[in-house]
Amino acid sequence: MAQIAKKTKRNHHGLLCAHEYDDVFAASIKEPEATAIFANGLERAGIGRRDQKVPSVGSEDFGQFGLSGAKAAMLFLGSSPDWPRVHPPDYDFRDELIPVGIRIFSETLAACLDNS
Length: 116
Fold this sequence. Notes:
This protein is mainly α. The chain has a single domain (26-114), classed as Orthogonal Bundle (DNA polymerase, domain 1). Helix content is 37%, strand content 5%. The protein contains four helices and two strands. A two-stranded antiparallel ribbon has the order 1-2. Helix 2 packs across helix 4 (98-114).
């Protein structure tokens, strides 16, 4: 984002426009062991998994957990690419995803207990 901000400083038709960007949020970094635990839970639940290939600023607060030493992984319980994203006013949580989320977390917890 800093590179984008730098490139937006331009002088067009005698008008100077400057932009500053200050990123105050910690990076959200998935920890490999925590990610493997979630992957196991998803497999046990029979739910497909897709790794995100590009960085995301999808959670401003999630990065703080990693800074505190927690082994963390992020799960995006997706509705569909055609569904409105979380923050716009037309977003409506799809209630039918609740049992899916419960199944994922139940199987993830069961996998952890089986391995302890």
